[in-house]
Structure formats: C-alpha cells, structure tokens
Amino acid sequence: MLAMPEINHIKKLRNIKSLSINEMVKRTGFCWETVKKYADEDQLPKEGETKKRGMIYEEKWGEIVSDWLTEDYALKKKLRRNNKNIFEQLQKLGFPGSYRTVCVYVKEWKDKVLDESDEIKEEAERLTHPPAEAQIDFGVTEVVQEGKVKDVHCLIMSFPYSNGGLVVPLPAENQECFLEGIKMLLVQAGCVPRKLRLDNLSAAVVQARGRGQETIFTDAFQRFSSHYGFEPQACNARKGNEKGHMEIDTK
User: Fold this and answer.
1) Owning domain of residue 74
2) If you write DSSP's letter for every residue of 117-140 in order, what string do you get?
3) What global pTM score does this model have?
4) How far apart are CA 43 and CA 36, in angstroms?
5) d(CA 40, CA 15)
6) Within 10 A of 242 (CB to CB), how many other CB atoms are there?
7) pLDDT tens-digit profile of 92-124?
C-alpha cells in the first residue's frame, strides 16, 4: 500500500498532466496495476489498525479475560465478575500486570463487543432453571474454633428456582466425603431433585464432555445417582455460567 504523498503524486500526474498509465509507470517506478488503481479509481487508503502491545494483548491473558467476559454476559448483571474480581483471579493464575491494565482491556473489550443494549452481539443464551433441579459444589467457609479463625471444607447444594440452599461441613473434598455429603444434604432437603448439576469434580467425573464425547462419571457416583434416582449433569469445561447460582453461593 502506498503512502499518501505517493498517491497524491500519481493523481496529480493523471488529473493535471494527463499522463497515460504507461508514462506514469516509467516516472514513478510502480507496477502498472498499482498506478492504475490509484490513478483512475476513487479510492482512499484505509486507515491501518494500530496493533496493541503489552502482555495482556500478546500473551494468553487477554484471551482468558475475553472468555470470562463472554461467559459472564450470559448471566444476570449481579452475577458477573467486576474488574476487581477479574484482576484477583488473574493474579491467582500468575498474571504479573497491574489492575489498571486489566481495567483498560475490559473497557476496550466492552466498547468493541457490546452494543447499546449492553448485550453480546451474538446473543449469548441465558440459562433457565426449572423446578426440582439442584446444583452442587465444594466450598470453603471460615469458622472460629478455640478463638482462632480456620477454613473448613463444605458441600453446598443450591436450588436456583426457589433461590434456596443447604450446606454441610466436611473433613475433605474426596469421593467418600462427596457422596456422604450429598446423602446428608438430601436428608436436610427432605426430597431428591430430578437433576443435579455439578462441575467436573474428580470425585464424580472421570472424563469431561467435549468434542462429541459425553461426560463419563465414576462408577461409584453412577451407582449412587441410580440408587437415589436423580440425573447427574456435568457442566461443560470453563462454563461457570451453566452453574451460575452455585458460583455465587460458593464465593
């Protein structure tokens, strides 16, 4: 692509001096197609996009943030990550940049991707949660024991339709504790949900869903769900919005 002074020179030779294309080729040294393009076509050069520089553009961080923002805009506003949440989660992954860098990237992403209605232009579908469906996940809560604050593992069962939830403390997050915790939660609830949605926990899932393959649950969890009569549903990888009600409860 030619610079503006070169384009103006070609147009001047054509419009003012009325030179032929072949004569202009000899004078300018450009190829015939290029001279013809700028001499006779009413074409303005396109403004080139400035390539962004910095770790968040050149490394994996920008892609991670974009994925999170896309997932979050399928949720209600109160369930979405804010800039501080995004920055703190990036730091846990080893992000060495500043909070300001994250804020600038998020603003640029929103300006580029979102329209005036504040929705994804490709219209991410919002999930609905019918009655008799539950979500479950491990969490950590703080308790005071003998005057000291300590973290305690727990298992949380959430009911999105009624906006209710139950929790039981557990000594660990292994399969034995997971299954025993579900039993205790079902006793508390006094009923069994038709469907139970969960992350790809190692306590329940052998292989996550992906590329034509369905989720493979552990033998113990399959026997457990068959005994109690609920249908387990594992979320897609990196799709926290599919279990958004639980994601808020476990924070």
Assistant:
1) 55-113
2) TSSBTT-PPPP---TTEEEEEEEE
3) 0.46
4) 11
5) 9
6) 17
7) 999 888 999 999 999 888 887 765 444 444 444
